[in-house]
């Protein structure tokens, strides 16, 4: 265990410090495609009973009208997060009598680009901009890439925790805002070093349907004669070249050494023209199809496994919010949906993430050089594509090392963090969470990515059959096992109705045309 980790844990072992470390705040944003009984992407509009996608705080859409997104509130208790996510699933499925929710990250059967309907957000200027942004993603990267679903995990510590850590680190001369941002970026750097471990343990997309490839060049092998393709030892095709990857952003080289570097690089990308996007043009048939023709239209277009975040105020851009008030929380973006779980994630996985991210914060985190950035990217990509391959070697801090050996070392060090966290529990939940994941390190066949392929082989299922059966099973279980929570359903119904009121108010507050609104936004 590093000296810095040991020192910080020792400082936090006091009753007060322990309580502060346990005050983790978390939220989940979980996506899922609406699919038909024939395993096709739904062509229907967003169910009206679910409210306005523009203004509902908990139920919206991502890229496609069919790609639902559930958003939990910020919670300190893991069970509260899981319960709310379950409530959202149940409420939504009640209003999808003829459709299912895709259980996995890789999509159902697609029928070309045109089969993926773009999300609609109404006629308010901000809603039109959200739609145009998605038009831009479609013309830049193709709609098929945007049909992938994932799970984003938002994570933060309380201000009381940061104040105690600031004192422990003797950082009295640094402002609280700067200290907190600096430490969040230290967490992010270590996340970059070790995020391959999350892909190994939780990657669950080793296979896909041929309709996703849609004529693209690829290096996948045929899994069966039913149109399923895979990589034998892959953990997450979603995070590979066929997923969230593009050449335009490869030159950004954001290694997260500081908040100022992050903001400057993003700002430059949003204002740097990119010739292939200029050739596409801003309009087609008199309608906007991109917000601009630069490397990034807006900050959200930057694809990364993790992001620093700050809640924005009205008419404020994310980078302006970060620059003015510093980092508020971090967003982990590389997690696949676990197709075997009704909600795509479990409480025990959240416990592991709590330990992992706390370890990333409390451990030594030197700055990352450009050379190190390339090495870390290579490790991540190796595990994404070949993570369970026997004899695979990663580029560790002291030379080549197997993923299993390195993962064991990391989990052993993380156990010291779990030990401190468990002093605030009665069930040793953090120790149990590590033990469950350690079993996957010893036995790679227990990883979700391996389990997917194993079941498909044993039961002679194509990817479409496998995902379709689980979609049906999950819907049946979620609707039948839901406890008597009439008040929850009533609250969500009220929220849906209120969201339409809020959308109309937004529309009424518009003071000019959409084109004027877009110009003003660009000037900010």
Question: What does this entry look like structurally?
Answer:
This protein has 524 residues and is an alpha+beta fold. The protein has helices at 3-12, 15-21, 78-94, 125-141, 159-168, 176-194, 196-202, 210-213, 259-271, 275-280, 318-325, 347-362, 370-386, 403-422, 429-442, 448-458, 463-480, 486-509, 514-523, and strands at residues 25-35, 59-61, 67-71, 100-101, 151-156, 207-209, 221-222, 228-230, 283-284, 287-288, 306-309, 329-335, 394-396, 399-401. It has 19 helices and 14 strands. Strands 1, 2, 3, 4, 5, 11 and 12 form a 7-stranded antiparallel beta sheet that branches. The longest helix is centred in the last third of the chain and has 24 residues, at 486-509. It is 47% helix and 11% strand.
Number of E-type strands: 14
Q: Can you give the mean pLDDT?
A: 93
Characterize the main sheet.
7 strands, antiparallel
Class based on secondary structure composition and strand pairing: alpha+beta
Beta-strand percentage range:
5-15%
Cα end-to-end separation: 46 Å
Write the layout of secondary structure elements.
Layout: H1 3-12, H2 15-21, E1 25-35, E2 59-61, E3 67-71, H3 78-94, E4 100-101, H4 125-141, E5 151-156, H5 159-168, H6 176-194, H7 196-202, E6 207-209, H8 210-213, E7 221-222, E8 228-230, H9 259-271, H10 275-280, E9 283-284, E10 287-288, E11 306-309, H11 318-325, E12 329-335, H12 347-362, H13 370-386, E13 394-396, E14 399-401, H14 403-422, H15 429-442, H16 448-458, H17 463-480, H18 486-509, H19 514-523
Antiparallel strand pairs: 1-3, 1-4, 1-5, 2-3, 5-12, 6-8, 7-8, 9-10, 11-12, 13-14
Helix pairs in contact: 6-12, 7-13, 9-11, 12-14, 12-15, 14-15
């Amino acid at each position: 265990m590093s000296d810095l980790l040991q020192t910080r844990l020792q400082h936090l072992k006091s009753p007060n410090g322990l309580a502060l470390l346990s005050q983790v705040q978390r939220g989940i944003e979980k996506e899922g495609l609406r699919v038909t009984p024939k395993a096709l992407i739904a062509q229907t509009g967003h169910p009206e009973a679910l409210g306005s996608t523009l203004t509902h705080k908990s139920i919206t859409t991502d890229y496609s009208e069919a790609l639902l997104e559930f958003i939990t509130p910020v919670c300190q208790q893991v069970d509260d997060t899981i319960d709310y996510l379950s409530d959202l699933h149940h409420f939504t499925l009640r209003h999808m009598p003829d459709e299912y929710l895709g259980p996995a990250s890789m999509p159902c059967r697609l029928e070309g680009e045109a089969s993926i309907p773009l999300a609609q957000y109404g006629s308010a200027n901000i809603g039109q901009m959200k739609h145009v942004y998605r038009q831009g993603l479609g013309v830049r990267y193709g709609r098929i890439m945007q049909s992938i679903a994932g799970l984003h995990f938002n994570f933060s510590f309380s201000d009381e925790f940061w104040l105690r850590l600031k004192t422990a680190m003797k950082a009295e001369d640094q402002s609280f805002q700067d200290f907190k941002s600096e430490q969040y970026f230290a967490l992010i750097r270590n996340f970059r070093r070790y995020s391959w471990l999350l892909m190994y343990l939780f990657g669950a997309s080793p296979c896909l349907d041929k309709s996703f490839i849609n004529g693209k060049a690829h290096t996948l092998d045929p899994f069966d004669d039913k149109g399923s393709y895979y990589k034998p030892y892959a953990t997450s095709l979603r995070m590979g070249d066929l997923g969230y990857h593009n050449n335009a952003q490869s030159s950004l080289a954001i290694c997260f050494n500081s908040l100022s570097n992050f903001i400057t690089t993003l700002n430059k990308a949003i204002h740097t023209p990119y010739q292939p996007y200029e050739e596409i043009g801003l309009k087609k048939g008199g309608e906007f199809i991109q917000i601009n023709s630069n490397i990034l239209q807006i900050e959200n277009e930057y694809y990364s496994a993790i992001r620093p975040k700050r809640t924005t105020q009205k008419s404020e851009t994310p980078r302006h919010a970060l620059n003015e008030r510093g980092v508020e929380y971090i967003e982990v973006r590389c997690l696949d949906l676990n197709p075997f779980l009704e909600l795509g994630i479990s409480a025990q996985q959240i416990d592991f993430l709590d330990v992992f991210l706390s370890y990333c914060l409390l451990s030594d985190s030197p700055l990352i050089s450009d050379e190190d950035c390339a090495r870390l990217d290579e490790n991540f990509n190796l595990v994404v594509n070949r993570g369970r391959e026997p004899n695979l070697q990663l580029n560790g801090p002291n030379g080549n090392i197997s993923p299993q050996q390195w993962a064991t070392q990391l989990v052993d060090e993380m156990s010291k963090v779990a030990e401190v966290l468990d002093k605030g529990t009665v069930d040793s939940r953090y120790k149990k969470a590590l033990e469950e994941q350690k079993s996957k390190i010893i036995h790679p066949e227990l990883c979700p990515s391996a389990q997917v392929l194993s079941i498909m082989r044993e039961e002679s299922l194509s990817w479409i059959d496998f995902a379709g059966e689980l979609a049906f099973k999950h819907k049946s279980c979620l609707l039948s096992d839901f406890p008597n929570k009439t008040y929850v359903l009533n609250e969500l119904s009220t929220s849906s109705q209120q969201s339409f009121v809020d959308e109309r108010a937004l529309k009424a507050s518009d003071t000019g045309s959409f084109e004027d609104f877009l110009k003003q936004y660009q000037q900010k």
